[in-house]
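Allow me, if you will, to draw on your knowledge of protein folds for a short while. I have a record of one protein: its chain in single-letter code and its fold written as discrete structure tokens. Could you please explain, in whatever detail you think fit, how the structure tokens follow from the sequence? The record follows directly beneath this note:
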Amino acid sequence: LPSPCPRDPFLSPDSHMDVQGYKWVHWRVWLCRLVALLSLGALLILFHWRPRLGVLARCRSCPLALAEVLLLRDVSYSVVSFSFEMLGRQEEAEWRDTVQLHKEEKTLLHYYLFEGLRYVWLDRKGAFCPVSVLNEDWTCKDLYGFQKGLSPREQSSRRSMFGVNLIDVPVKSYMRLLFEEVLNPFYIFQVFSIVLWTTDEYYFYALCIFIISIISISISLYETRKQSITLRNMAQFITNVTIRRESGEEDCVNSVELVPGDCLIIPQEGLLLPCDAALLAGECLVNESMLTGESVPVLKTPLPAADRTYSSETEHRHTLFCGTQIIQAKGGGPGGGGAVAVVTSTGFLTAKGALVSSIMYPQQLNFSFQKDAMKFLLILGSLAFCGTIYIFVILFKANVTWPEIIVRCLDIVTIAVPPALPAAITTGAIYAQSRLKKHGIFCINPPRINVGGKVSVFCFDKTGTLTEEGLDVWGVMEGGPAGFSELVPDPRLLPPGHMQSALACCHTVTLLRGQPLGDPLELKMVESTGWTLQEPEGDGDVVNAEYGGHKVLAVMRPPTQQLFLHRNSSEAVAIVKRFPFSSALQRMSVLTVATGGRSAMVFVKGSPEMVASLCRADTVPPQFSSTLHTFSSEGLRVLALACKPVDVNSDLINIERADAEKDLQFLGLLMMKNLVKPESAKVINVLRLAQIRNVMVTGDNILTAVNVAKSCGMVGSDEKVIFVTASPHTAQSLPTLRFSLEDEVAAQRSTDVMDQSLYQGGFDYHLAINGKSFAALCDHFPEYLPKVLMKATVFARMLPDQKAQLVKELQKLNYRVGMCGDGANDCGALRAADVGVSLSEAEASVASPFTSKTENISCVPLLIREGRCSLVTSFSLFRYMALYSLIQFCSVLILNTVKTTLADFQFLFCDLFLVTLLALFMGKGGPSEELYPRRPPASLLSLPVFGSLFIQTCMIVLGQLSAVFITKTQEWYIPLNSTVFGTENLPNMENACVFNLSGYQYIFMAVVVTKSYPHKKPLYHNVIFLCILLIHFAVMTWLVLYPGPFFSQVFKLYNFTDMNFKMLLCAVAALNFLICFLLIDLGALNCLRLLRGKRPSKKQYKRLNVLLSDSTSWLPLNQTLTPRDHTVIHFS
């Protein structure tokens, strides 16, 4: 498993912050205080919204070493102040330059806290750095020096430096939350609006909005504090642990007191780890599902005492992570129980701290939708400004008093700019998150749901994702200089020897309460041999003596009855040292001792290519490559095994891995059948029909991966696979790049035909590349990399870092990249992807923003459908909220022109009863059952969106003006009183006709904007919304046709007596609806798209696709290219 290490740039985005230093300028500070007083606190509110302005106004720039205030710029600006701590004299020269001397006997620690992490001033670097840099130079050998324990003085000093071992999630008081919530621009605007409405005598409307705002704030405060408390309960873990003091005594302390360098004693029964620690002695069986989602317990082995720098990322098989459950510890303490580890990270610097930090401070998305929403608010603000000028001119000409003019002008701003717009467009994501949770998909970053709707390529891990987790042994073949033996389907039929011992011993399977636990592949391998695993009991002295006094970890005993009759039966073998599997090394190994300590042997298991490269050439069969090709092409998982005798009298425990795993003797191949999950092919087909690219990224052999790609439908039966082979620069040769067909015979037959332009000649093909070639391609052939990425479907033998690099390279081509994996080796790629889905039992994983409890990829289409549904819902709500403002804006402008306005209850009826209910339930409709090839748009500032809003606004204005003109043409029309203005003119005919028609417009515009086919279910599936529409239509029709004297008085409506006129108003509203629904949203939008024409796409992968389609030189089959052979295809 990879380390969920906080040094990972995806988990610690603050590592690249821009930091600027400032000092207070006293006269500026006092001047700002005076201005804040004169502005009644408005300046302080501005500084609260824009901290950078507050710093620039009150401070001057200065060197970081002299700074009193820091301005941090990551995604946005943050301001932090410093803390100082007095420390005792530091003895270590390494630490002496990290602090500033204060007097002679004291040390001043200069640091600040940001997002839970402590940053200290380092003189030698001239910068503030995470406190973790103080131990980043520790080597593995240095960690063994801490086995003797720390002195109390040293512990106290380190605690002052690193802080307490606590993942402290702040839970703010209700008063502080209220203060921060009230200072939100939305609520400031609401306060301004309520004051204005009260001044304008809209008392009941102002009171209702005030009550709703109070309820909204209360719910928001409760939910915010509840989430903080839940997260704190999950993050904060305090327990008692045993540590070793410098004196050699063991002491029980609170876990909060732990510091890096403490020697931790782990009991045999295990514990929930409160810190990150490197294992020094013994073995630990660890459940890491809470962090990585990996359900299989992992065996952790002691850290090699090497001179290389320690990193939890590279040494993850020897590192115990905070928040993981140690199930059992053995072999490290007296009596053979327990283990010994040294603390390496505490608090937010741990793996669990990184997970909590990613939840508290999620990465900001580079997604145009949210940015466009804020830009559109500015456009509406500009419209409000124009409306204000118009009203000012109209009222000034009408000789209205200045207070009335000011109130009327400001009132236009509150109508034209809907402050709830940013909040309303998140409703779709909230509904989608709720639906996903019901399907077992959990999301810790809801804005990512909308991004899921734009995914254009989805990457899949193979083992455990596309294929079953477990494998069945298919057969073994022994090999040597003379070649391979016959295939043996059952390993128990093998004759006694090194091959059988390697299969039985080369694993990290362990026992828990008598039951074997470990990697499913290794469990199947051991089970197939029939050998049994035994572990020493107690201190193990008896077993150790049986095997020459060596410290025994486990004993593998052969079955009592051999299935294959041989004169010599197999002997029991003791495992004394394990080198766990490493994705980077592509192998694992064990060191074993025979009974009586007669001999010692190293057994190695790993990828065939890697193991063969470590073997002596004279021991590898000549048919190795062809045999491997044959089995891999059949989709089998192939592992190679090798061995080497070692001197039994040498220091076996401290043998270096590099020494143990060289000059090996090749033993043979183990073939395992890995079945494709039944759901995989269905899901891949669904994605292909939706024109979403599918890519396989695996650590397995390239031929096995290609076979699985064909089995699950990524590669069609009539499609060709072309292998990309790139070699790096060596002393003997230049870098080379070659494209060759999968079948060499087919290559010779069809090369001439395909060279005429495979890309445009009717052949559909896929590229396949392995990790080594991918690295060489990136380093030496960057001009070919985008073209290979365009058609590559299989990426094999990819290291975890290369998976993350692949995701980033695809993103550079403007792909929206999804990644689905098991949350283990795919951790970096899952975090790098726009939409990362971890197949895991955990509800929150350090691996990715999405976690699915479904053990197959059927969650992927569901997530994309929900993303598309959420995105189109957000678009609908955005358009509706904008149109709601524009309808009311037009109504008020028209009525103010004729010296009247809307009544108090009319505003209340439109805003609360009509609009709020419709907007609340508009997003409740679920996603469609199928994925459509065309993805929904994500840009709000596009011609179709703007064009439709503009035309609909024109239709709204025409509809309301038509109602006014029709009213004025009636014989019974009575002009209103021109000597008074506003509500004093109510009720009147102009107000009644405009209110009646605008009421219908609020209703039918909700229908117009919710047409979301094909990404959302039809309107009739959203039963609640449909019922509300019908109720609203009925109520509005009743108010038009027969409001009655009571409601006419409440709404200050003029009650027309002419039923024919009332029916005419309803007909105008119906015509207005039909024009907007049919002509505009169907015809006009298509006309706008035609007028715009088919413009070149801004996405690089689409532009490159067009260029490649027109190229006659792509693809250069069976040509050996060097960096001098530049491509003729370029794009900027």
